[in-house]
TrEMBL record:
<feature type="domain" description="EthD">
    <location>
        <begin position="12"/>
        <end position="83"/>
    </location>
</feature>
<dbReference type="Pfam" id="PF07110">
    <property type="entry name" value="EthD"/>
</dbReference>
<dbReference type="InterPro" id="IPR011008">
    <property type="entry name" value="Dimeric_a/b-barrel"/>
</dbReference>
<dbReference type="InterPro" id="IPR009799">
    <property type="entry name" value="EthD_dom"/>
</dbReference>
<protein>
    <recommendedName>
        <fullName>EthD domain-containing protein</fullName>
    </recommendedName>
</protein>
Length: 106
């Protein structure tokens, strides 16, 4: 699996609950349509382990079969629509991509 990992923080004028509801609601409706999307996991962050990790609201991991499939999704009209929906929202994000390796499964 090749993943796009997004760590995001809400706009300052939004509550955590509003941001998560939007991310898992209206924004999710656009995300589901990304071509080649094979899996999507979303984690609502409710606590930071340490002070330097504070200030984040959620993590999305979008899975694709290959880097090429992710690149196609990022070039798609569906991705453009999702980006347009975010617009000039004043939240923060970190976006990274890479190959997944399962390290443990119980």
């Amino acid at each position: 699996m090749y993943n796009l990992v997004l760590l995001a923080a809400r706009p300052p004028e939004w509550t955590h609950e509003q941001f998560i509801a939007w991310w898992r609601g209206d924004h999710a409706e656009l995300t589901y349509r990304l071509p080649g999307l094979r899996a999507w996991r979303h984690t609502e962050i409710d606590a930071a382990l340490e002070p330097r990790s504070e200030g984040w609201d959620g993590i999305s991991v979008l899975g694709f079969d290959s880097p090429e499939d992710l690149r196609k999704a990022l070039a798609s009209p569906e991705w453009a629509e999702a980006v347009a929906q975010v617009g000039d929202m004043k939240g923060r994000r970190i976006a990274v991509m890479g190959h997944e390796a399962e390290m443990f499964a119980a």
